[in-house]
User: Which sequence fits this backbone?
């Protein structure tokens, strides 16, 4: 397989974009990524999206977006693996370029969620879980995470407040991200006082939905004679793993086996260890997922994820900086787009262009996108090292 | 890229399978394909499906099906490009194996449509078209095809009865396919008398929906030491092309540019011409699409597709046998599964195992899957030639 690099990135802000259609959001991100790369074409388009069928009455997003950005005729598909749809699209673009089949691929994640009633969005999110054994029993997606968090707190003796810094740190970091959903600091008191959604998960454990799109343009490293001036950001490792679709069927429901598998594969390909990672864009859809991701990806002992938050080792200058531009909690979580936001943010850091949020001397960045309650987890490691 | 072969196939019958869930249908096809290949595992699963979000309250089909067939942990995604979702899944599996990233891929197409009210299915099918410029104007999917057919008949002077043999031939061929939706012959009189759905399209121009799943197992040719006894069926050519999402935006709405592009690429890779093709599993969702596919794929002059039907050159012993096991019209069209049914049928023919429906000395078979009104078309050429 050929080595592949990202040479273009683009994103829209995450907000309630009622004045932009689904295609306009996706188109903005794709055209920015193409302009950033200095290219006016691509060979293949890979679209990550979870809920356009129900939220926007629109599927067939490959042709829909390729047409909109003036690239009709190009190969174009839509990939879906719930909240990990963005990383699935990125990985498909990577494999297509690595294989030699095409030279220029664009992966875009897009989601437009705020035009629909929230009950409909809650029902759409639940299609990531098992329709027969979870959804139809009345278990919403927040409820699944609450069950996991409850069990985790019971097993390891954590209290709710031990998770506070996952959210507080994310909001600190989002202050310097112009594309983020929230630009406001959180206090420990606010976290403590937040209203319960599904015990023990409160509003401030949960990430916000939103409308947004992010895109990355990929080319083979050996064809980097292309006319662009950006530093080369290589995709050094890529791993993907599924797990049971239901949370209750897992041997250990408070361990993300698919994160362990996919990060192990990515580390191995990249030839590095967790200690080499300079920043980690993890999937903090809920604070419990932040803790579990850190553990399964090798940054913490089993059951000790919250310790990293308590010791503030997850901050910009900590042992393992996470959510460096706000994460899902504060940048926002437009579900099918999130995996591409993570990639765009890792590339921004590795280019040294993250401004006030810049991680010093960042050389290895990792992005991990989770689908369902841990049923599909995709991990990528990128680097500016040659 | 590595050469890739199909060494396992599986399918369910297409019918109203109210006693089988979505996962059971998909699982049956996947497990049959694995058994056929003599393998009890795969490395990656690629699922083609269009409407499980609305029709079955279930997305995340990669993890959902991998788990069900005992392959939890494996990489698994869902691909969607409307009615061409099946071929998109097959092509993704092909690229993954060709790249060297994995050795054993399964592509499965599945759709479960008959549990839902028909108005809901009509609305779901319309998400393949443009939500803003087609669907919200009240144009259903049948209506789009009717507009195209009306224009085509006007331009080239064909009458409705000239399309009859596309449907009659499909029903003849389905008689020998135990998995087909229909086992009944059609007469010209029945075709003439059929009720109009949307002028000029009648019930007997249109393919039936249904519940079903089909799967193919792919391995690299250079690793064919695997313990299976089936003849090697090589994937000799693969092409994919998009077009405008709306039918009205095309320069020529009665020409399938994406079929022309993708078949040209597939012929070039295979090193053959249309005259070398021994059978063509085309996308006869409507008789007009049958005519347009034959033209754009090089089997007929522009505007002369119906001539092949009138002269019965599309029959088993004709110049270009099509829909050899019933096609969409009579085998049935469970939308996201159709592209895999086409592949399974081409492999069956090339193995010489099509029984009464066998095309004599078949060496080159082609499958072409159409998404939307021609917005995404994927063409594969397979062969038993070494």
Assistant:
């Amino acid at each position: 397989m050929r080595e592949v690099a990202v040479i273009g990135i683009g994103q829209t802000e995450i907000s309630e974009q009622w004045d932009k259609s689904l295609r306009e959001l996706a188109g903005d991100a794709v055209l920015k990524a193409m302009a950033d790369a200095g290219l006016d074409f691509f060979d293949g388009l890979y679209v990550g999206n979870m809920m356009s069928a129900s939220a926007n009455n629109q599927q067939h997003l490959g042709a829909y977006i390729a047409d909109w950005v003036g690239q009709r005729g190009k190969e174009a598909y839509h990939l879906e693996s719930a909240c990990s749809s963005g990383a699935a699209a990125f990985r498909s673009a990577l494999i297509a370029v690595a294989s030699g089949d095409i030279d220029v691929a664009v992966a875009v994640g897009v989601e437009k969620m705020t035009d629909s009633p929230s009950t409909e969005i809650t029902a759409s999110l639940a299609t990531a879980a098992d329709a027969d054994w979870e959804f139809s029993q009345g278990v919403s997606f927040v409820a699944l995470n609450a069950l996991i968090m409850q069990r985790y707190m019971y097993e390891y003796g954590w209290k709710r407040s031990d998770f506070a810094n996952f959210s507080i740190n994310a909001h600190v970091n989002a202050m310097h991200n112009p594309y983020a959903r929230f630009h406001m600091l959180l206090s420990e008191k606010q976290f403590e006082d937040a209203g319960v959604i599904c015990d023990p998960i409160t509003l401030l454990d949960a990430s916000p939905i939103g409308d947004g799109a992010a895109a990355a343009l990929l080319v083979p490293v050996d064809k980097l004679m292309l006319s662009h001036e950006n530093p080369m950001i290589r995709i050094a490792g890529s791993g993907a793993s599924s797990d049971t679709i239901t949370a209750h069927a897992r041997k250990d429901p408070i361990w993300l086996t698919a994160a362990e598998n996919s990060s192990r594969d990515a580390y191995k390909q990249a030839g590095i260890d967790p200690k080499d990672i300079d920043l980690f864009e993890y999937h903090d859809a809920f604070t419990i997922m932040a803790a579990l991701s850190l553990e399964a990806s090798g940054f913490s002992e089993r059951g000790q994820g919250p310790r990293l938050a308590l010791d503030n080792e997850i901050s910009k200058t900590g042992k393992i900086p996470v959510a460096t531009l706000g994460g899902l909690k504060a940048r926002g979580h437009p579900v099918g787009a999130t995996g591409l936001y993570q990639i765009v943010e890792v590339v921004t850091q590795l280019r040294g262009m993250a401004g006030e949020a810049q991680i010093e001397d960042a050389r290895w960045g990792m992005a991990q996108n989770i689908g369902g309650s841990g049923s599909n987890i995709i991990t990528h490691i990128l680097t500016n090292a040659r």
